[in-house]
Design brief:
Radius of gyration of chain A: 23 Å
Strand content of chain A: 5-15%
Number of helices of chain A: 17
Largest sheet of chain A: 5 strands, mixed
Shape of chain A: globular
Oligomer: homodimer
Amino acid sequence: MRFTHLTDTCLATAIGDLGLSDDAFARMLMAAAPAHDRLCQLCESDRLPALTVVRGDADLDAARPLAEDWRARLDDVVVLGTGGSSLGAKTLYALADGDGPRLHFLDNVDPETLTVLQARLDPRRSGLLLISKSGNTAETLAQTLVLLPAFAQALGRERLPRHAAVITEPGKRPLGEIAARYGLPRLDHHPGIGGRFSVFSLVGALPALLAGLDVAALRCGAAEVLDAAQGAERVEACEPAVGAAVAVGLLQAHGIGQSVFLTYRDALADFGLWFRQLWAESLGKDGTGLTPLRALGTADHHSQLQLYLAGPRDKMFTLVMPGTAGQGPRMDAELAGAVGAEALAGRTLGDLLDASARATAETLARAGRPVRRIEVAALDEATLGALMMHFMLETILAADLLGVNAFDQPAVEEGKVLTREYLKGAPS
Amino acid sequence: MRFTHLTDTCLATAIGDLGLSDDAFARMLMAAAPAHDRLCQLCESDRLPALTVVRGDADLDAARPLAEDWRARLDDVVVLGTGGSSLGAKTLYALADGDGPRLHFLDNVDPETLTVLQARLDPRRSGLLLISKSGNTAETLAQTLVLLPAFAQALGRERLPRHAAVITEPGKRPLGEIAARYGLPRLDHHPGIGGRFSVFSLVGALPALLAGLDVAALRCGAAEVLDAAQGAERVEACEPAVGAAVAVGLLQAHGIGQSVFLTYRDALADFGLWFRQLWAESLGKDGTGLTPLRALGTADHHSQLQLYLAGPRDKMFTLVMPGTAGQGPRMDAELAGAVGAEALAGRTLGDLLDASARATAETLARAGRPVRRIEVAALDEATLGALMMHFMLETILAADLLGVNAFDQPAVEEGKVLTREYLKGAPS
């Protein structure tokens, strides 16, 4: 196993009255069984390409040569995309070791940020990767309408196709028309894969290839988790179903509507943001949902732990804990001893991170707060693939238990229309 | 005014049943009046130095020459500190224009992060600023026990005092003993100022001075807000009291326990994290509290807005909206027109950011969600000082309304003890 999923300290037997009772847990697992069956059927009939894409690699045929070419020629690649077109790739990029072009994720429309970045880029050694499923995302179009003409001017239009590429759905799309106009490579965003579920598709894979990451290992780790979920004879053996049952069970039994996602490596900071979108947009609808809160250990111990331990009893906790014992530089034993910090003497930074994570899990459980621990052996592409697949499955199953559609986001349309009206200077 | 504080769309008259009724609002303001009086008395009797420090500058006498010297000699300064010893300075540093040494905030104990940073530093051109109120924060000590001996080795011990300095409370403190041992400059952390309230003290001011920021303007903007709050004859004229009354009123009337803090400039991203600590640690105790959620527009429109608009009715929203209309690079009008994106043609990125923020405020209000808007004219030191003072006052007043002590954090001690036990390899 690439990680161990431990939910015992979410149960009343371990933490007392705020935990899930054995009865309530058993009822939720019973409810999760048909949800698990439905999920398996969707996978078998190939109706969830966001998941089953990890079982092949034919879709990468167009991406690999582009990535090779850009890696050989370019120092910087700006990924223009927001939300689901950015967070998955950002999460993967945290594993990159600096071999290959620097990736810059431009996922906001801050005027200063773009200006500063643009001033640093040499277009002759830079690429623009434009990603939008609809091809009509205002932020991505806006950035494109600034940067692409500037690149065309600096490089000459004939050289632009070697410095820019588009990922968007097939059909007539503004971003597609821009690709056609300048003769840019255009890769297809799979129409059956939504943005927040797109990390295993080209949307995550092309940036990962640019960064020199092992996309085959990523998909392999993900496929193992998918295979295990589909192969589980009983729902209790399907870890994503157990996770969903615990989360929805705690909501229904105790009104625990907040889900703190606390990771213990800086490289997992963006993973927390990826999960936050997945969980929020998939479950937050029809007046229900579970609110995700992203946190990073140990820094947030010094910011949020007081609230977590002693505030309202409305939160459950998922701690993602890579084993870091023995890792990193060692603290000076003599100096530590001289100033009364014997506990640190000769220990590594990883020892402290590991001890802090374990202490926090135990402290939360002692305070009667439901805590799930995800213990990770090694932080690499396969493990990240496994973790991301776990949470995609868990999210889909939690949506089923809540009775909502995991795959739509109907509420955000009004704001987009209104933004255009404000832009016209004529709000209704 | 450096910013305008608009709470009308938190009231039932504007947004319907999830808003605060006129009666409930009036009752909360009545409760806030004695809290406001108490706050004014504390300020007048000089018992809240975290606030009144902004009225002088004598405490900067030791910091200014150190900052001048380091700015002249150093390219990189690593600030070792976590939580309240980091987030305020980080927030200010977002305003820096690159004139002066680069600041690196090492607020976590990730072994990889420290290793990568250390490999990039040239000790001869680098400084270490060690900040911990107690002088005994495990993370800060751990980083110190790695980096300081390495610097001593690289530079020779006799040169170390020109490359490292300590801010900690007076008295016998591990970090203070380290300063004495190596002969490092030691500046006093004011004993009456808690970490999360320390941004206006040396803890925020020294890093700001290193970055070439205008600390006088920062304190001036803050002093204006403090003066206005103390000078308010009636509680309705004290904006921080109005903000606290709305937040606590919505909790008590409708169980709205989550406070989304949504800022619309990348430079305000860390401001959101600073607020998140201030609000969480000050209010989250005795089983009560209001949970802060940090969000960044427009990126989080594509991640969280679906949940905000259509999920559970348990959130209020504070939108911090700097006016960005007309700012930043302009979108190509011809290309926009050619691909059907007329709304963007010839607009600036700042126009889009501004329109998106206003549209989101309106969309949330139309969905019946309580929204407070903070409209900011210019993003500079004085404005940030004013905003930070506003939220410090609001937090203190909200704590009073909730009946909790804003200034302690009693729950986190157990985890620290347990961390040491795990480090010893002998958990109890």
